[in-house]
């Protein structure tokens, strides 16, 4: 099978999560993302049907990972050893830092790092990563060229985050002559065409309002890996005269960003402190990683000091920490802000958290914006790309693509087609 580039979306043509695309040219193959479907269990989920993964013929040249969200990497732990995983350097460092803290945490053994806009070669494939704005840090789209054909895989994108400038830079000079664009459409079905998502700056201002009017501690339930959001929380905290408190997990993730402008518990950021809940102290010991707290020396806030510190603090937290904070007597006049997907609030842990806030007279509100582009920005993206064909991926609403974008071609999961 030589001569023409062909492609198969194993999963993603009509769902968000579990994205996986395989490309073949001249008998050589690459796989782009190998995600776990939303709400799926790793043990109960098979790898997509990719025979080259299990073959020793060397036809599979590697897996490209667009970013560190589980709906893109979640099935990587099932890869046999020896298959190279190509990913951003900071994605690798965050995955490595986060792994010991997460159930099913993972970082690839055979990791190869790529860089923004530095093209690299995998057999007949030329790959150029493009750093994009997304709620996941260090997230890329890929231009992939083989046999004279050009594919662009959008990855997960948005234009309203802290790296909106990257989105605009891309639109100003997108890759030319793209034959096929695989573009995400996460927001379709969630927003009408004319609705816009709030920007990360607007989120910062709303966080600030709550921090200003709250007498006690402000608890922000968000993912520490949503680095844009952590920056918004930090900035709002600073503007309201508060310090940012993080636990050991968030501390390690923030340090792993290895980025000067990102707040972290180091000497350069005197207003970032570390609070380690009791349960986490035990956990660190069990995992034999208690030594990492040595690096927080002089930056710790201990439970006995927390009631006094509360009014001057904003804390990144997860719902299970609420009980610890109550025991420390730190919840007087507190507010809780849910700053992640509100769908989690309908799940058991989310319902319990709201109940616990109510029981402790902790104010509760949702302040969040999406990690994905709204339809307006998706239209701008598609128009700028001018691809000969646009194939929907990473969407629950592929049928809405035709009404919004030009040159749409629908495909189905598991079917090969020529580019
Ligand atoms: Zn993502
Ligand atoms: Zn995704």
Overview of the molecule:
- The protein has a 7-stranded mixed beta sheet with strand order 6-5-4-3-2-1-19.
- The longest helix has 14 residues.
- 26% of the residues lie in helices and 22% in strands.
- It folds into 2 domains: 234 residues, Metallo-beta-lactamase, Chain A (4-Layer Sandwich), CATH 3.60.15; 167 residues, 3-Layer(aba) Sandwich (Rossmann fold), CATH 3.40.50.10710.
- The chain is of the alpha/beta class and 419 residues long.
- Helix 3 runs antiparallel to helix 7 and helix 5 crosses helix 6.
- The mean pLDDT is 96.
- The two termini are 14 Å apart.
- It is built from 13 helices and 19 strands.
- Strand 5, helix 3 and strand 6 form a beta-alpha-beta unit.
Would you summarize the structure shown here?
The chain is α/β, with parallel strands linked by helices and 419 residues long. The protein contains 13 helices and 19 strands. Helices cover 26% and strands 22% of the residues.
Task: Tell me, rounded to a whole number, the average pLDDT.
Answer: 96
Helix content: 25-40%
- How is the largest sheet built, in terms of strand order? 6-5-4-3-2-1-19
Q: How does the major sheet shape up?
A: 7 strands, mixed
Rg: 22 Å
Topology, number of strands: 19
CATH fourth-tier homologous superfamily of the largest domain: Ribonuclease Z/Hydroxyacylglutathione hydrolase-like
Tally of distinct domains: 2
Q: Report, as a whole number of angstroms, the end-to-end distance.
A: 14 Å
Instruction: Give the percentage of residues in beta strands.
Output: 15-25%
CATH topology of the largest domain: Metallo-beta-lactamase, Chain A
Bound molecules: zinc ion
Contiguous helical run count: 13
In CATH, the architecture of the largest domain is 4-Layer Sandwich
Please write the CATH class name of the largest domain. Alpha Beta
Unreliable spans are none
**Shape type:** globular
Structural class: alpha/beta
């Amino acid at each position: 099978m030589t001569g023409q580039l062909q492609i198969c979306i194993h999963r993603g043509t009509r769902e968000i999560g579990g994205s996986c695309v395989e490309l073949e040219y001249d008998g050589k193959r690459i796989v782009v993302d190998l995600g776990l479907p939303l709400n799926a269990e790793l043990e109960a989920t098979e790898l997509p049907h990719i025979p080259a993964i299990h073959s020793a013929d060397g036809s599979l040249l590697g897996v490209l990972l667009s970013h560190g969200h589980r709906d893109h990497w979640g099935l990587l732990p099932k890869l046999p050893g020896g298959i190279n995983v190509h990913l951003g350097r900071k994605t690798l460092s965050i995955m490595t830092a986060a792994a010991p803290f997460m159930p099913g945490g993972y970082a690839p053994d055979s990791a190869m790092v790529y860089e923004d806009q530095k093209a690299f070669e995998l057999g007949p494939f030329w790959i150029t990563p493009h750093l994009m704005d997304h709620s996941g840090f260090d997230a890329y789209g890929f231009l992939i060229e083989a046999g004279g054909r050009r594919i662009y895989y959008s990855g997960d994108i948005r234009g309203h985050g802290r790296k909106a400038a990257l989105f605009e830079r891309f639109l100003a000079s997108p890759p030319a002559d793209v034959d096929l664009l695989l573009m995400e459409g996460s927001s379709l079905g969630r927003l009408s065409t004319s609705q816009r998502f709030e920007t990360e700056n607007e989120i910062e201002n709303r966080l600030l309002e709550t921090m200003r009017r709250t007498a006690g501690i402000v608890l922000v339930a968000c993912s520490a890996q949503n680095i844009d959001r952590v920056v918004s929380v930090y900035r709002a905290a600073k503007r309201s005269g508060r310090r940012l408190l993080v636990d050991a997990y968030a501390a390690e993730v923030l340090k792993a960003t290895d980025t000067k402008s990102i707040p972290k518990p180091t000497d350069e950021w005197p207003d970032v402190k570390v609070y380690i809940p009791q349960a986490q102290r035990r956990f660190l010991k069990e995992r034999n990683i208690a030594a990492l707290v040595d690096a927080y020396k002089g930056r710790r806030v201990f439970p006995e000091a927390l009631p006094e510190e509360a009014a001057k603090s904003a804390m990144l937290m997860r719902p299970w920490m609420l009980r610890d904070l109550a025991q420390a007597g730190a919840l007087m006049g507190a507010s809780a802000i849910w700053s992640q997907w509100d769908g989690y609030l309908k799940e058991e842990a989310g319902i319990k958290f709201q109940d616990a806030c109510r029981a402790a007279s902790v104010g509760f509100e949702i302040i969040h914006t999406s990690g994905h582009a709204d339809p307006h920005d998706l239209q701008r993206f598609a128009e700028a790309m001018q691809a000969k064909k646009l194939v929907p991926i990473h969407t629950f609403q592929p049928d809405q693509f035709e009404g919004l974008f030009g040159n749409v071609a629908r495909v189905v999961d598991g079917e090969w087609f020529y580019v």
